[in-house]
Amino acid sequence: MKTDLPHSFRRLEYSPPTYTLGQVALDIALDPAHTIVKSRLEVLPGPHHAADAPLILQGEELEFVSLRVNGEVHRQFELSPGFLKILALPDGGQKAFIVEIICACAPATNTSLMGLYVSNGNFFTQCEAEGFRKITYFLDRPDVMARYRVTLRAIEADYPVLLSNGNLIDTEKLPNGWHLATWEDPFPKPSYLFALVAGKLECLEETITTSSGATKLLQIWVEPADLKKTRHAMDSLIAAIHWDEKRFGLELDLERFMIVAVSDFNMGAMENKGLNIFNTKFILAQPETATDADFANIESVVAHEYFHNWTGNRVTCRDWFQLSLKEGLTVFRDQEFSADQMGSESGRAVRRIDDVRVLRQLQFPEDAGPMAHPIRPDEYEEINNFYTVTVYEKGAEVVRMYQTLLGVEGFRKGMDLYFQRHDGHAVTCDDFLAAMADANGRDLSRFKYWYSQSGTPKVHVAERYDASLQQYHLTLSQSCTPGDGQTLKNAFHIPLKMRLLTASNDQAEQLLELTQENQTWVFEGLAERPALSLNRGFSAPIQLKFAQSQDDLMHLFFADDDAFNRWESGQTLAMQLILDNHLPDSALIDAYRHILTDPDLDPAFKELALSLPAESYLYEQCVEVDPQHIHNARRAFRHAVASELRLEWAALYQQMQTPGPFSPDAVSAAKRALKNCALNMLLEADPLIWAPMAVNQYQTADNMTDRYGALAALVICGSKEAQACLKDFYTRFEGDTLVIDKWFALQASRPPVKGAQSTLEAVQQLRQHAAFKMNNPNRVRSVIHAYCLNNPASFHLADGSGYVFWAEAVLALNAVNPQIAARLARGLDRWRNFAQPFQSQMLAALQRVATSPGLSADVREVINKAIG
Ligand code: PHE
Ligand code: ZN
After folding, report:
1. Which has the least CB within 10 A, 236, 300, 614, 727?
2. Peptidase M1 alanyl aminopeptidase C-terminal domain: which residues (predicted)?
3. Which residue range is the domain that position 507 belongs to?
4. Are residues 482 and 593 located together in one domain of the fold?
5. Complex ipTM, two decimals?
6. pTM for the whole thing?
7. What is the Cα–Cα distance from 745 to 585, expressed in whole angstroms?
8. CA 459 to CA 473: how far, in whole Å?
């Protein structure tokens, strides 16, 4: 663990490497306690070489054994924490030379899950961003790309399967029950894309033919008992391969593409070249154990990692400040893929609404808080802390804006030029912008501020209708307050899709480009005052500041042909009432009724239209957040929507049943979503009447969506039937880790219920449960993160006890897994925005963590930035 003094890395301090690498040969003898790594590096002078420059390799938590240069034992070196510095190189390092290093590491005790580690008795690696240096001393930076040949040795009975990147070129039996496998990756790659896997695994395998007629082998490797849960992941992979050929002309470049699932993993998944490694959560699914949401997540994460093969691997990042170059682009690509997979326009819109909700609930707060950063950050202490919703989700919005400005075809031209120019190289966000601009002959110089300025821009709207001239005047002005003390000088280039809604329906959708602080547009020939539909499809990641009249909002909620804005107007109406502590008025209830009973509307849209803005999004609208007040206002509002529409909910609960055997398709999934939403509302309105219905659904369900949906409804409303069902659920699924994660998460996310045990007490008990494991990230997230980050009303307690729990958990995790600890540490970021007594209690908890000894660089950076 790095616990030295804080050190900041700065984007503008980039310099090209002094040395680079040609061939890399690794020979790894796998042993859980003591793995021996022999490396042979062909070192070349880099673009920035000066005579006699030492070769400085990174290395962490390694046991150094020996060093040779050009075959001779080399004694001129210095070892310091983090580095191996090799001096007195042949020819002053001006010509190629060979470095051979032997070192060792201890995978079995590696709980950080970075570098080489053991999970369930098998070996895995995680190298992004800087994990390779925990395997061997290396030039561990993404602009050093090398060709790898990897020999893995292990005891065959314990580790029958040995995998690494690329193609398998040799296998051999060795004395004493050992065996080896040699893999060669034909593509040069940075070290963060290296991977190895060894253990008792089996695979689902399929061969496919890609667009050029080549045959490719696809494999999904899992523990034998999980083999039956891999079909959906394989189907998703095949769909993603075909989609990328069709949409972007990008073909799979390897003969073999492997995915491996592991149950101990810090993130969702990792795009190692030809050997993706996945959190089991994003691979394993069967209808009995995975919800519709799980199925959709698997499809999108499998696609995301596959898409990285071009956007990330073939063209990679010059340095980690450019992370959004691959992540923003790849998220955009997976969003487009998932939208297309819905198979209908309304399905696409539903996906878009889901994506925007994530952005607003998670990224907007980040962009207004102490960890705010541009999608291309300027400075970091620990790069692991910058795998953020800003880099990923806002980064994807920025990529989407190119497509909005240039059109789908123009965007494709830009992508083609990007690959033509940069295939095989490590490049920057500026290079991507230049490809988009040059391919389309467009000046995008103002667009670059999306990369350098943090904060969510606000667009203020002023409108005026002149009846005598039949003119409509629209004035837009932009402003932006970043959270990180950046001073903003430059107006953003903001593409805003808009349409004027009129009775005669005679105005077409247009694209307005707001590029100055203030701009006015005049629209002619309007015989009546139109209703403005602006930022349609959420064409720019901004906050609209528009005091639109209730009448116009209501009109949009009934009649906007843009599904996103139709949904949005309903959200705005509800939000205003909740923030004013009002219940829904009769006009809004009528509008809800109209939506719920419209036979032509997609059930998935109905479900979204009736979902209220999240508490975390409501917080962003307040100057002094009182979490209990907001929770109660929102809950009362929800109760009113539930009870006033009880007849409609009951009718929907019947109509949305999907008789016959389970089917996972989008239409059936949408029905299940609306049905379970109805059940929740019915339990909210009349718990005594509907609890038996929920119990019945729980018991008779043939799929996890319905079984979990009923259980969650019972738990959330605090029904007395919940306990028995929870108990049944645990025994029913005891052997299935991912399902037991749901069991933990559901209890940890329960909102407060009058007269029942507090959620904090429940969470404290769950932490003592025999199945709770501090070193398994999924289990930790399902209990601790679910409670502290995802359950605001149960967490923000006036006596500060939630924060005390948080501080203890951050410190406990800090010693086990700094990345998982740092994620949790983000939980009090927004303390300055809270009312008293919450604010002081949060600060006290932050200070307690800040003054504790032994903080990892990860946790320290987050906490120091929060305190400010
Ligand atoms: N690069 C991975 C992705 O987004 C995320 C990741 C980062 C995984 C760091 C592990 C470690 O696809
Ligand atoms: Zn990614």
Report:
1. 727
2. 551-867
3. 458-543
4. no
5. 0.99
6. 0.98
7. 35
8. 16
